[in-house]
Amino acid sequence: MNVESVSLADFRSYPEARFTFTPGLTAVLGSNGRGKTNLLEAVGFMAGIGSLRGVPDEALVRSGTDAAVVRGEIAADDGRQFLVEIEIARTGRNRVLLNRQRVSRLRELAGALTVTVFSPDDLQLVKGSPAHRRRWLDEALVACHPARESVRADLDRILRQRNTALRQARGRISPDIAVTLDVWDAKLAAAGDQLRCLRRELLSGLVPRLAAAYAVVAGAATEISADYASSWGPEPLAEALAAARSDDVRRGVTTVGPHRDDVSFEIDGLAARTHASQGEQRSLALALRLAADGEVRARRSVKPVLLLDDVFSELDPGRAGALALALPDGQKILTSATGVPPGCSADQVLLLDGPARSPERP
Question: pTM for the whole thing?
Fold first, then answer.
């Protein structure tokens, strides 16, 4: 798949702008603060993954305006054309259209555009909190199976409702609270067991790709393992929720479920988060992105668009060259403040320094 054009209005730093892209590698060059990452973030939003930096939607709206507009034209690998139009509201709900038909959730755009994002922040996939690894795994799950988005969305909704009931309990289980929790526990158990199963199945398929990608980036074959660390035992989630109810009511929050799970990685039998060097951790982070991209290509027979946000500047020459060689076929959009990275051959260069482009409001 290829992003053919992106038009922006009041998105981040852009009052109005339009960009067109070639099917190959586009290098977006410019000094810091010129909007390079903002442009990649708009493409990511078109793919339904939200902000690349994890900020609230209202932060994407240019200061002093009420809404931002992102409009993109996409050519799918099977020849279909997609038009994505998104109005991001500072307050209230966003408006999302796919081929001029409204869709209820942003994630539904994943079927039209799939992206693989490489970011300097990817080091947090290895050394950061479990939330980073859960997000990586869930994004890969939806990219492999766009219909799975509903499972994750349902879980989020159920969790919000259950946590609301727990807060309303104020530390005490009344008959009414018990009945309410029974309802939400049943729903959470069904969605949670399903999501844990889906995550584990996907991770199992990712491990061989992860080891292969790490060997390429690090320049040496190394034993890589990954384990899904669940917040409850082998029993069904319904049993774990029942056992944790008193503690949940006391604390006012759900303490077991997929939202508390983690993924642990080992390099040569040692925990990557605590025992790997910075270079090993960075190689593993790159391998995580490459492995997920490879799994998406295998399962859906599509070529995700690669978004590389100033990644090469964080790598030593050896890893930078290895990554350039390891990047799979398909459209790539990379940003850099120092020019086209060594080992990369750009089919198109967009310079963000200098005079502004002729605007074209979507």
Answer: 0.89
